[in-house]
Specification:
- The complex is a heterodimer of chains A (470) and B (198).
- Chain A has 470 residues and is mainly alpha-helical.
- A two-stranded antiparallel sheet of chain A has the order 1-2.
- In chain A, α1 crosses α2.
- Chain B has a three-stranded antiparallel β-sheet with strand order 1-9-8, with no helix packed on it. Chain B has a three-stranded antiparallel β-sheet with strand order 2-3-4, with no helix packed on it.
- In chain B, a hairpin with a 2-residue loop joins β8 and β9.
- Classes of the chains: A mainly alpha (470), B alpha+beta (198).
């Protein structure tokens, strides 16, 4: 226990109050130092470093607007759709709160995708930040669950059929699938029971987990320190320190980055408000037009698609047809042959490779393409967790990697966007082939990373971060 | 503290009580997981539905709700029935041999129906549960092949089905559309949800 400090009776009222609090709740003062006033962040942060604090801002917006929406919303299949319209038309300023929440959902994903991309190009997931990255991936996963559960609540056509499709994904799991889908729905079809439990997940269960994960993400980050665009660890032993042992290339988060982030917040809020006030549906991308029709279990709308932030993964699901499964069998066979030809394996090792490949191909051919589509979609998210161990590049930041690495990242981003675009569109033969190529590239990018990430001519990494005072 | 010897009996009891606690927690979890199952009310809602099809003209289709799902009743014309011969070689499971959605004995035939002209199907795609849309007109049209004989197209992932609900080859849906249990009460009245007693 900390020592009880007495203060002079002549001290100011403010100083007395601070002393009183300090004696009773020193944890708060310590936390302020560790996470704010004495958290030294690299001084060379650039544009990409706005998105972490913006994600936190959007989380707060979603929680606050969500609390107010729940005051008027009714999680009941007979009343849900009408209660959302009631919020839009009759509740004073209800439309604004609802549009903030619906736009906030899309904003959350935009900000998080950009935040993840930053981590990818600057190697922020590399040792010792693996856990920061894994907590981040869990946040992304929970965010997808949160968005999915929330999307059912307005009980429109898209809500209903979107939930129907995603819940049925689980029924593709061999053996236990149909029972699992039944357990999720709580009924033989998506119904009132489903709506009620999704409401419970959306407003209490997932947000609690999400907040816990955000705290873990930040604590782990503040324990190991932030990375930066140069990928140089400013707290490493060989880096210059001042007389207090603080890194010379770091600046206290508060006030320097809190003030700096205000710029990002201002720009973000300008765009955010513009969308809320002038284009809350954003041409059907943020709020899909079919969702303004009440849910009808007997009629699927002529074209259904998930909201934009799920579509890259949805495209991969659609890309997994019987032909694609045969291609995957070929890929496994070729990789096994290459592994054998490269040599360096014992007889046992060779045996394991051959048996593994045969079992893999047998499994691919045994179960339906439908199941593998689900595996591909899930795998596309799960593979992110392994990124810290897939990247074998000798440097962290893209700045010091060979130029052709940048092209690989560029193609990756372009194909991810193309997959997203195709997922919004109705299925077509050409679109399927393009999304199959995109899916193969996506997985190839990660699975072959242990080899390509260390190939090529790397540039020399400077001793200290590059920083131009302005 | 660190130098004191381990009290073996105290440790044994701590481990034993922790195990007992874990078992208890496991039992307590059961009611919570079980509460996810369909309620008694949801189970009771699956009663059979009676349908009058006397007004259904050849070429017309009607939809009724059974267990919350759309059930289609299509009165097929002779041309429609003839088209099934042409699609025989293009569908994945022409004889409905797969067992994911077993089909009742008296409808397990080339028409997939008790009476050839009256087709009864659950209008839910076997891929991910969307309801396919009618594409009953033959001929080339958007998202469909040029030699289209009439059938159904799932808007979600593009699976196509012929006029007996059989899925075409190399489509995402693994199975033919489900034929629900049904029987004829009279020439113009159907009961959906109960098969003909053998």
């Amino acid at each position: 226990m900390a020592e009880f400090k007495e203060i002079s009776p002549n001290a100011s009222a403010g100083a007395k109050l601070e002393n009183w609090l300090h004696n009773r709740f020193p944890t708060a003062f310590d936390a302020y130092k560790v996470h704010m006033s004495e958290y030294y962040a690299p001084k060379n942060f650039n544009f990409w470093y706005f998105f972490g604090s913006l994600a936190l801002l959007v989380l707060v917006i979603q929680i606050v607007t969500g609390i107010f929406l729940v005051m008027h919303y009714k999680p009941d299949a007979a009343n849900a759709f009408a209660s959302v319209e009631y919020i839009m038309r009759d509740v004073p300023w209800g439309w604004l709160i609802r549009y903030m929440h619906s736009t906030g959902a899309s904003a959350f994903f935009i900000v998080v995708y950009l935040h993840m991309f930053k981590a990818m190009i600057y190697g922020s997931y590399r040792k010792p930040r693996e856990l920061v990255w894994i907590f981040g991936c869990l946040i992304f996963l929970m965010l997808m669950a949160e968005a999915f559960f929330g999307y059912l609540l307005p009980w429109g056509q898209m809500s209903y059929w979107g939930a129907q499709v995603i819940v049925n994904l689980f029924s593709a799991v061999p053996f236990v699938g149909p029972d699992l889908a039944l357990l999720i729905r709580g009924d033989y079809v998506v119904s009132d029971a489903t709506l009620n439990r999704f409401f419970s997940f959306h407003v209490i269960a997932i947000p609690l987990v999400l907040i816990g994960l955000v705290v873990a993400h930040l604590f782990a980050l503040h324990d190991v320190g932030s990375n930066n665009p140069d990928g140089i660890d400013i707290k490493a032993k060989d880096q210059p320190k001042d007389e207090h042992g603080h890194p010379v290339d770091g600046i206290p988060f508060h006030p320097y980055y809190t003030v700096h982030d205000m710029v990002g917040v201002s720009v973000f809020l300008m765009v955010f408000s513009a969308i809320i006030f002038f284009a809350p549906e954003l041409g059907g991308y943020f709020l899909e037009f079919n969702n303004f029709i009440p849910a009808d279990p007997l009629k699927t709308p002529p074209h259904i698609a998930p909201v934009w932030y799920f579509t890259p993964f949805y495209s991969m699901l659609r890309a997994t047809t019987d032909v694609m499964v045969q291609v995957l069998c070929g890929v496994i066979a070729i990789s096994a042959i290459i592994t054998l030809l490269r040599g360096g394996l014992s007889t046992l090792g060779k045996g394991i490779v051959v048996v593994g490949a045969v079992v893999g191909i047998a499994l691919l051919l045994t179960f339906d393409a439908k199941f593998w589509g689900v595996v591909v979609m899930g795998g596309a998210v799960i593979i992110l967790f392994f990124l810290p161990w897939l990247d074998h590049s000798p440097v962290k930041s893209i700045r010091y990697r060979p130029d052709w690495h940048k092209y690989l990242y560029g193609i990756f981003v372009a194909l991810f966007l193309v997959l997203g675009y195709l997922g919004v569109k109705p299925p077509s033969d050409a679109g399927t082939i393009v999304s199959q190529i995109g899916t193969l590239y996506y997985f190839g990018f990660f699975l072959l990373m242990p080899w390509w990430s260390k190939a090529g001519q790397f540039k020399p990494v400077p001793d200290r971060v590059t920083f131009h005072p302005h | 503290m660190s130098n004191s010897t381990v009290d073996a009996s105290k440790r044994t009891w701590l481990i034993a009580s922790s195990c007992a606690g874990a078992v208890g927690a496991g039992f307590v979890a059961v009611p919570f997981v079980r509460s996810f199952e369909p309620s008694e009310r949801a189970k009771a809602a699956g009663a059979p539905v009676e349908v009058d099809i006397s007004a259904l003209q050849p070429g017309q289709k009607m939809t009724v709700e059974w267990r919350g799902k759309p059930v289609w009743i299509l009165h097929r014309t002779p041309e429609m029935l003839a088209s099934l011969k042409k699609t025989d070689s293009e569908v994945a499971d022409p004889q409905s041999k797969r067992t994911a959605f077993p089909i009742q004995q008296d409808a397990h035939n080339e028409w997939r129906s008790i009476k050839p002209e009256i087709l009864v199907l659950v209008g839910i795609c076997t891929h991910l549960g969307c309801s396919p849309t009618d594409k009953l007109q033959p001929g080339p049209q958007a998202s469909l092949p040029d030699d289209w004989q009439g059938g159904f197209l799932c808007p979600c992932h593009g699976s196509t089905f012929d006029l007996a609900g059989r899925v075409f080859k190399n489509k995402p849906a693994p199975d033919n559309l489900e034929v629900p249990p049904y029987k004829f009460l009279s020439a113009s009245r159907l009961l959906i949800g109960e098969e003909t007693k053998a």
